[in-house]
């Protein structure tokens, strides 16, 4: 419960801090400038996913099993860090190439480059280690401290509609600072010592994280890519309306993540010791998390208009319908998380998990393109809902077909 409370604290701050800066940002940058900022941030998320690769699940699983073995934890830590450094450097070189090839990226290159600090912060922050050791409270301390420092910087430096690059730089700085704080905590706790990673272990970490990486990459096809493709098709103003609504949806939906992150190492460990108790725990999670998410979705739908007007003002009226369409996703995602992460991944069904998400990514692209052309930001929202529903139904169908005793 302590870990869940800590992670809910993080998500709560992730929701409250934007409530302080977001109304200011959307008004100063205006829909077009905020659309550029949202578009660039979405593009950079690809590189965060690439750098993370899947270690937040694959390495967490290993750390949870060997959490008290300092030698193994140290070897794992440095191998994962080397992997992430290589991925981070490769990602920046690829971004540089894109900026020089794609016109839409060239036009906002300053915003893209200034936002790359998010990737560096992702590299520095070993979330998987804190999750594996079940010390989520320190994740909260690192994130909240860094994000609080970013608040005055936004108000001081972002003062013009063309200052999207400064907003991106401040976000990147905040991520890097959080990463440095987390590394200092690891050092002070003496969880690891220096251990030169073996080439064979580096390759092994890449292999072990592959299926999770494919899964997260597939997820990005219907999360991150929604904003990017909408930007190419409908332009920055439609992106601004969509991102404004999606920020609220993601912040509220993010309350699911603390429960998932806190339970994943515990369910994983319990499944290796007592499957009956593990499935009992997952069923309780399904009842309480699913019920809470359903209530959250209903509240989000009926308060959509008031939330948009309160946070963004009258100029974002078009975001109201977007938020109403997206309101059902917290409930759908809660179900898919339990069916997928807490059940399929824990049972070692990584390939099945990946295949379902790749299929969902394809569904997303096939629905997003026509819907965005004809219905702009509303079409993008419909595509997100259809894709999330595809994931949940496919995972549940596999569980039933495979006779996995989740509902018994």
Describe the structure.
The chain folds into two domains: 1-197, no CATH class; 222-408, no CATH class. The two termini are 25 Å apart. The chain is built from 18 helices and no strands. The model has no long low-confidence stretch (mean pLDDT 84). Helices cover 86% and strands 0% of the residues. It is mainly α and 408 residues long. Helix 8 (136-157) runs antiparallel to helix 9. The chain crosses the membrane at residues 7-26, 32-55, 76-98, 110-130, 137-159, 165-187, 281-302, 322-347, 354-375, 381-400. InterPro entries: Poly_Biosynth_Transport, Polysacc_synth. Pfam families: Polysacc_synt. This is Flippase. It is found in: Cell membrane.
SSE inventory with pairings:
Blueprint: H1 2-52, H2 55-65, H3 70-101, H4 103-106, H5 109-115, H6 117-124, H7 127-132, H8 136-157, H9 164-189, H10 199-221, H11 224-234, H12 236-253, H13 256-273, H14 275-302, H15 304-311, H16 319-326, H17 329-345, H18 350-401
Helix pairs in contact: 1-3, 1-6, 1-8, 1-9, 1-10, 1-11, 1-12, 1-13, 2-3, 2-10, 2-13, 3-6, 3-10, 5-9, 6-9, 8-9, 10-18, 11-12, 11-18, 12-16, 12-17, 12-18, 13-14, 13-17, 14-17, 15-16, 16-18, 17-18
> Could you say which overall geometry the principal axes of the C-alpha atoms support?
globular
Indicate the proportion of strand residues: under 5%
Count of beta strands: 0
> How does the helix and strand content classify structurally?
mainly alpha
Quaternary state of this entry equals single chain
Unreliable spans are none
Indicate the mean pLDDT: 84
The number of distinct structural domains comes to 2
CA radius of gyration:
21 Å
Largest beta-sheet characterization: none
Q: Helix amount, in percent?
A: over 70%
Helix count from the secondary structure assignment: 18
Instruction: Give the termini separation.
Output: 25 Å
Task: State the order of secondary-structure elements, H for helix, E for strand.
Answer: HHHHHHHHHHHHHHHHHH
Protein name: Flippase
Membrane topology: Multi-pass membrane protein
Transmembrane segments: 7-26, 32-55, 76-98, 110-130, 137-159, 165-187, 281-302, 322-347, 354-375, 381-400
Organism: Pectobacterium odoriferum
